[in-house]
Amino acid sequence: MFEKFKGISKGALIRGGLLVLALLNSALQLAGYDVLPFTEDDVETFLTVVFNFVAMGAAYWKNNSFTKPARDADDKLSEEKAKIKAIKKAQKGRR
């Protein structure tokens, strides 16, 4: 059943689904049905809470190195990544 969606990204499917929901909601409002029983204040509060949680998650998802050993480890990791990148670039040059 889902094979036809295999080449489509998750983001495209989510955006498409949200568009269908928005169009359906607009059509029902035009017909006089109040589908979403929320006030503007409810929506604003919900969006504020979601924004705060997304900001919090984004802030702590990254590797926040506060201690000296952690910063040293980050520097070492960056050096190793640069070495690997240089090796891959050299290998591509040989082809």
Percent of residues in helices: over 70%
State the distance separating the first and last CA atoms. 42 Å
How large is the share of residues in beta strands? under 5%
Overall geometry comes to: flat
User: In this structure, how is the largest beta sheet organized?
Assistant: none
Unreliable spans are none
- In sequence order, what are the helices and strands, one letter per element? HHH
The radius of gyration over CA amounts to 24 Å
Task: Name the average pLDDT.
Answer: 87
Structural class designation: mainly alpha
Number of helices: 3
**Count of beta strands:** 0
What's the assembly state of these chains? single chain
InterPro entries: Holin (IPR006479)
Keywords: Membrane, Transmembrane, Transmembrane helix
Transmembrane segments: 12-31, 43-61
Pfam family, one: Holin_SPP1
Q: What do these coordinates show?
A:
The radius of gyration is 24 Å and the shape is flat. It contains three helices and no strands. With 95 residues, the protein is mainly α. The protein has a domain at 1-36.
Entry keywords:
single chain; 95 residues; 3 helices
List strands and helices in order, with pairings.
Elements: H1 10-30, H2 40-61, H3 68-94
Organism: Oceanobacillus neutriphilus
Transmembrane segments: 12-31, 43-61
Keywords: Membrane, Transmembrane, Transmembrane helix
Report a brief summary of the structure:
By secondary structure, the protein is an all-alpha fold.
